[in-house]
Write a structure and sequence with these properties.
This protein is an alpha/beta fold. The protein contains 12 helices and 8 strands. Helix 1 packs across helix 9, helix 4 packs parallel to helix 6 and helix 8 packs across helix 9. The longest helix has 19 residues.
């Protein structure tokens, strides 16, 4: 007798590891970027403003030291209580945030410092004021310029990695994800609203989107998974930070030994391979 089909994960089927990880990525006590910055970097000095319009508090950026090595840090910050969330715009950057990030990247290239980017956003801010100030252009500009950077770029998705809002600071030589983070072109709720006409089917969409770290590692879209302690990073932020430290230390040791051209080629080849699922066959094979 044929094997019975596996049940489809949905809101009626709670055994859905993809949705469970989305919920853990959104845990109210999950460490945010500033928690990692405090634990990983010494003498961190924040840089404010984009020199065009304003200072976007959804992105924290600046310079500091990692294991006695000078680095530049870009991080998306959500905020924890209501006051902080409003101040940080729920971690959704506006154009000035991406321009501030690019300002820091240009400084990194000028002074030959590695860039470490911590990603944690539901997406770029979609408000009218952001669109009027060139939200799409700011993200597109970052994508192009990050591909041209001659210094190592290491990206860590620590929570949510939503669409272009995340990718605008995530064109890296190495991309890592914490075990319970997610990274996708769209949130499960938005996907469910579009595909199923029902945002309540977000768990089903999460499974279909392949947004978790194991899924993306298998697809070749990320370079590694950083393990989380216990039931998630929120149970032991210090241990989670140490796991990130170990990964960053190994990645920096590898990338800092490459020349500028090798870094460019490495990043170019990495993104050219994404989305290619075809294999070449020989004439004899045909």
């Amino acid at each position: 007798m044929a094997d019975s089909p596996k049940p489809i994960a949905s809101k009626s089927n709670p055994a859905n590891p993809s949705w469970e990880r989305v919920q853990l990525a959104r845990h109210p006590k999950r460490p945010h970027s500033l928690d990692y910055i405090q634990r990983l970097f010494t003498d961190f000095r924040e840089i404010h403003g984009d020199r065009f319009f304003a200072d976007d508090h959804a992105i924290v950026s600046g310079m500091g030291w990692f294991d006695e090595r000078p680095v530049m840090v870009i991080a998306q910050q959500k905020g924890r209580d209501t006051k902080q969330k409003v101040f940080r715009n729920w971690g959704m950057p506006k154009p000035e945030g991406y321009r501030k990030a690019m300002r820091v990247m240009e400084l990194a290239a000028k002074f030959n410092r590695p860039i470490i980017s911590l990603v944690d956003t539901l997406g770029a801010y979609p408000g009218l004021d952001a669109e009027e100030r060139g939200q799409a252009e700011a993200i597109a500009y970052n994508l192009r310029e990050m591909a041209r950077l001659t210094v190592p770029v290491i990206v860590v998705v620590i929570g949510e990695g939503g669409s272009g809002g995340a990718l605008g600071v995530a064109v890296g030589n190495r991309i890592y994800m914490l075990q319970n983070a997610w990274y996708s072109v769209i949130s499960p709720e938005s996907c469910a609203a579009i595909i199923y006409r029902d945002s309540g089917r977000a768990p089903e969409a999460a499974a279909a989107l392949k947004i978790t770290a194991p899924d993306l590692l298998e697809l070749g879209l990320i370079d590694g998974i950083i393990p989380e302690p216990g039931e998630g990073a929120h149970t032991d932020p210090d241990a989670a930070a140490e796991a990130v430290r170990t990964t960053l230390r190994a990645s920096l040791a590898e990338l800092c030994g490459l020349t500028a051209q090798q870094l460019l080629d490495d990043r170019y080849d990495k993104f050219r391979r994404m989305g290619s699922f075809f294999t070449e066959t020989t004439a004899a094979g045909k």
